[in-house]
């Protein structure tokens, strides 16, 4: 059990300042029930991650290899994708279909203060994308960008400022409906939505100039991740770019197709998966993509997961 004293000390020791007011202390007291939760609250906060001068702790270099099956038949991949869709459909009910969506015209409802903050913070991730492209001498002047896992639009609203047209793809129709609400709030009208029904439905989309996906691939089994990546990278125009995030190592992790399909109960928690870097690099090579930059990132917020942000470019056609 923590106290208001613990919270005030966390402000001083971790953020180097006093709390804004007594109300914020009371809010944290209501949601952090232990010192471990309090520590996580502060160490994963946006303020700490953007202001701290401490370097990120490097992951150990002697972890054992992962026994991960990354290739499945089209039927097995389809079955895995249906399982993931079922999970998202079930959590949509309590998480998204709340009092908001009980209004017939929910897409026209005004944003709350919390929603405004939620969407504003999404601009930071798009800024990282822009900085990465700039470091690699890439100009973001492409015409069409595909966003895989567009969700409720936290990033879509900012991507739609960068590109003339966005193809928003997601497995959840409910979340795409909320995405449209966000786009209306930000005055955007250049997004075309497509529900991810199958890998084939993704393959049926027109070609595009850019691909973007953050904190999405990791929630799919490795064979689905590889199938998605091979499909989208294969549909990039020559000279097109792809920027995506993917875990490449999880300590103690393994994946068996048979176990996932026939021995694992229905998902009750959000799944976290990884594809080894060696397999990732092979996919890039097979899809004629040049790796421009790969960086470890903090998006899984875990000391036992290596998460990588990747920027690559489809090779130009040579005569």
CATH top-level class of the largest domain:
Alpha Beta
Work out the strand percent. Answer: 15-25%
**Spatial order of the strands forming the largest sheet:** 3-2-1-4-5-7-6
- SSE pattern: HHHHHHEHEHEHEHEHHEE
Rg is 21 Å
Low-confidence stretches: none
Into which percent range does the helicity of residues fall? 40-55%
Judging by the overall fold, what is the CATH architecture of the largest domain? 3-Layer(aba) Sandwich
**Tally of separate domains:** 2
Task: Write down the overall geometry.
Answer: globular
CATH fold annotation of the largest domain: Rossmann fold
Instruction: Briefly note the structural class of the backbone.
Output: alpha/beta
Specify the biggest β-sheet: 7 strands, mixed
Task: Give the number of helices.
Answer: 12
State the separation between the terminal residues, measured CA to CA.
69 Å
Helix/strand layout:
Elements: H1 4-15, H2 22-31, H3 35-43, H4 46-51, H5 74-95, H6 113-135, E1 144-148, H7 156-162, E2 165-170, H8 173-186, E3 191-195, H9 199-203, E4 208-213, H10 222-234, E5 236-250, H11 257-263, H12 277-286, E6 289-297, E7 305-314
Parallel strand pairs: 1-2, 1-4, 2-3, 4-5
Antiparallel strand pairs: 5-7, 6-7
Helix pairs in contact: 1-3, 10-12
Descriptive notes:
This protein has a seven-stranded mixed β-sheet, sandwiched between helices. The model has no long low-confidence stretch (mean pLDDT 88). It has helices at 4-15, 22-31, 35-43, 46-51, 74-95, 113-135, 156-162, 173-186, 199-203, 222-234, 257-263, 277-286, and strands at 144-148, 165-170, 191-195, 208-213, 236-250, 289-297, 305-314. It is 43% helix and 18% strand.
